[in-house]
Amino acid sequence: MKKSKKSVRKDTGSKAFSQKVPKHHHCPVCGMPTDLDKEVCSKECEARFKKVRWGRVVPFIIIFGAIIYMIIRWIYQF
Question: Is the whole model's pTM more than 0.70, yes or no?
Answer without folding.
Answer: no
